[in-house]
Write a structure and sequence with these properties.
Helix content: over 70%
Order of helices and strands: HHHHHH
Number of helices: 6
Largest sheet: none
Structural class: mainly alpha
Length: 157
Amino acid sequence: MYFDIQRASMLKRISALILDFILVMILATGFGSLISGAIGYDASLNKLNAMSAEYEEKYGINLSVTPDDYAGLTEEEKAVYSEANEAMLNDENISSQYSLLINKTLIVMTFGILLAMLVSDLVVPLLFKNGQTVGKKIFSLAVMNQDQTKLTGIGLT
């Protein structure tokens, strides 16, 4: 079956791309949430917060001050903050827990985006059986072979 090929406008193509991007980010957030629960991200974060709370209690400070609040502290209070910071940097448990949390963050982000891209750009076009993503389908953009035939199945005409 041959079609009269007319190139879609750039606005239409960009709109489809933006819609696909939004859908990928929504899927990535959902997959990231699932992965986060599976690898125990929240437990690691709570453990790190508990370790930080011990230092706050030990030194009598609040570690979540803004730069403006810090600038308004006296020299003695700044010295206490520096001492607490130095003690935390030298604590192996906090360093290892922080590294673990960073690694888990990278795992959640990487695999969340990877799974979202696989679903959006591989599974959905296979389900539509014509190579269209959701954005292309909504904006009525077709994927064509070079011989001006519409793509069907797995690229077979």
